[in-house]
């Protein structure tokens, strides 16, 4: 009977790894929560910046968002509360509020000169707000509010919208909703930074600020105060029923959000800050990330590793059986006991020996004296790094006490016992000296450089080892070759043919 185990659980580690990757991606996305904001203008007089010198008597708006430098002088329009409604006056009054449900927004770090004109170059943010009370806007269920299909918003007061729940370009007196389309101009650097909170659509919002008025603008001036504009007792601007839409420039001094505010000086108790996370706050988010993110990652790694080891153990049990598992556990237990007793494994022993050998070699190198340079004579006698004297000295030593070396010229030929025996046999024979030599020997002799006579041979230094010469071997003359060649030169019988040194 063959038992087969289902190895489908081998996909479990892969599934765990995929889940771990997903968890890492989610944690990484949490790092970006509340930390990214839209690209907007800077504060100051540099490139791509605006600067507003706010005063109720006269306000100057300077901008470089058009590429060049522009400057506009305007008079703020405030509101004086009253029982019959707020009274709008230029150069007087408190801030006016524009309250409702934020449906769309746009941010500018530059302006197109063809679509923007006048005070529009000082606008850093544009918003589309459905007019209603703050409580009604906060009660709107997410997804049930107005949705705007925004196509283009190059002109701060005239967005181009498409099919959506509301088309701002087609609003008229018969529309069911009323809207503010505001071009916002910050009055301080803190307000400019706080305007990035409007990047989140579909939330209740209340913009606090002043309308604008210019004497040369007249009643037809775009975005300025008109004669029909009115406000409530709380100085909240009303939207006229004949148009259901108000397009205005606003000098912003503050913003009210659901649970946070943006103040002119940035010192409110619930001041909105870029990167703030709802409910948790910045400190709570960091703590949540450290505890939940890093701790969860470590826990997930431990769990996935345990599952992987468990799966590997099941596979090993199938391969080697229960008996093999018991033996493996016994070996592991013995290895731990031996290590606790101070025994070394073969690998540790080999590493220790290697370290000791390397240490001994280093100490030996330190103790060795520096080598002296060889003399000029020894350099001349060596051929390409090969010392002939050392070879000859070792050869004469290996011959033992029976050997002897003549005091003649140096020789690189080693005389063996067989050669000595042949010399003795040749000495007993009385054969005439050969008149000619083999052609190979003669060719070698002709190719060898001429040697000096014996009488002119230099004496050997007494310190150099002496090697015995070997006499030429007497051989029978070869068969005459019938060739017309020059007669071979005659050589003395005692001539040494074993010396081929230079």
What does this entry look like structurally?
There is one protein chain. The protein has a domain at 38-274. It is 30% helix and 18% strand. The protein is built from 9 helices and 15 strands. Strands 6-7-10-12-11 form a 5-stranded mixed beta barrel. A two-stranded antiparallel sheet has the order 8-9. Helix 1 (12-31) runs antiparallel to helix 4.
Secondary structure: elements and pairs:
Blueprint (H helix, E strand, L loop, with lengths): L11 H20 L10 E2 L5 E5 L5 E5 L6 E11 L6 E4 L5 E12 L17 E7 L2 H5 L11 E3 L7 E2 L17 E8 L2 H6 L8 E11 L31 E13 L2 E3 L18 H61 L4 H22 L8 H6 E2 L2 E2 H11 L18 H12 L10 H9 L55
Parallel strand pairs: 1-2, 10-12
Antiparallel strand pairs: 2-3, 3-4, 4-5, 4-11, 6-7, 6-11, 7-10, 8-9, 11-12, 12-13, 14-15
Radius of gyration: 54 Å
Oligomer: single chain
Q: Looking across the biggest beta sheet, what order are the strands in? A: 6-7-10-12-11
Uncertain segments are 1-12, 379-384, 397-412, 433-464
Number of strands: 15
Mean pLDDT: 76
Query: Helical residue percent?
Result: 25-40%
Order of helices and strands: HEEEEEEEHEEEHEEEHHHEEHHH
Major beta sheet summary: 5 strands, mixed, barrel
Can you count the helices? 9
Structure described in brief:
This protein is α+β, with helices and mostly antiparallel strands and 502 residues long.
Key features of this structure:
alpha+beta; 502 residues; five-stranded mixed beta barrel; 9 helices
């Amino acid at each position: 009977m063959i038992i087969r185990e289902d190895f489908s659980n081998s996909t479990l580690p892969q599934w765990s790894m995929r889940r771990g990757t997903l968890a890492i991606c989610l944690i990484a996305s949490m790092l970006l929560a509340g930390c990214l904001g839209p690209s907007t203008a800077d504060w100051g007089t540099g490139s791509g910046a605006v600067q507003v010198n706010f005063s109720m008597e006269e306000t100057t708006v300077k901008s470089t968002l058009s590429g060049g430098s522009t400057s506009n002088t305007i008079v703020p329009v405030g509101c004086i509360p009253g029982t019959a409604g707020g009274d709008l006056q230029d150069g007087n009054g408190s801030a006016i509020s524009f309250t409702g449900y934020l449906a769309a927004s746009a941010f500018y770090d530059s302006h197109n000169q063809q679509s923007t004109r006048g005070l529009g170059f000082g606008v850093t943010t544009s918003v589309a707000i459905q007019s209603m009370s703050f409580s009604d806007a906060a009660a709107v269920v997410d997804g049930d509010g107005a949705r705007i299909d925004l196509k283009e918003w190059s002109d701060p007061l005239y967005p181009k919208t498409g099919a959506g729940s509301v088309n701002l370009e087609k609003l008229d007196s018969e529309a069911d909703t009323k809207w503010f389309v505001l071009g916002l101009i910050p009055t301080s650097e803190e307000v400019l930074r706080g305007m990035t909170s409007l990047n989140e659509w579909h939330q209740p919002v209340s913009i606090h600020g002043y309308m604008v008025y210019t004497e040369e603008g007249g009643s037809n001036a775009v975005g300025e105060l008109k004669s029909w504009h009115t406000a409530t007792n709380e100085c909240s601007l009303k939207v006229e029923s004949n148009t259901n839409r108000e397009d205005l420039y606003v000098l912003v001094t503050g913003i009210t959000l659901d649970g946070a505010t943006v103040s002119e000086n940035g010192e409110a108790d619930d001041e909105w800050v870029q990167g703030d996370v709802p409910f948790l706050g910045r400190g709570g988010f960091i703590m949540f990330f450290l505890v939940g993110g890093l701790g969860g990652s470590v826990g997930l790694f431990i769990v996935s590793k345990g599952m992987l080891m468990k799966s590997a153990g099941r596979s090993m049990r199938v391969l080697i059986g229960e008996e093999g598992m018991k033996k493996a556990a016994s070996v592991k237990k013995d290895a731990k006991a031996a290590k606790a007793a101070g025994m070394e494994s073969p690998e540790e022993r080999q590493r220790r020996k290697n370290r000791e050998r390397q240490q001994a070699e280093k100490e030996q190198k330190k103790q060795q004296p520096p080598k002296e340079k060889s003399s000029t004579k020894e350099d001349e006698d060596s051929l390409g790094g090969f010392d002939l004297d050392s070879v000859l000295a070792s050869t004469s030593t290996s011959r033992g006490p029976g050997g002897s070396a003549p005091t003649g010229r140096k020789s690189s030929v080693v005389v063996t016992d067989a050669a000595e025996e042949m010399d003795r046999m040749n000495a007993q024979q009385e054969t005439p000296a050969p008149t000619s030599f083999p052609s190979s020997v003669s060719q070698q002799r002709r190719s060898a450089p001429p040697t000096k006579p014996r009488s002119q041979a230099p004496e050997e230094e007494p310190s150099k080892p002496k090697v015995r010469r070997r006499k030429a071997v007497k051989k029978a003359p070869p068969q005459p070759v019938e060739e017309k060649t020059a007669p071979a030169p005659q050589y003395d019988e005692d001539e040494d043919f074993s010396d081929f040194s230079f």
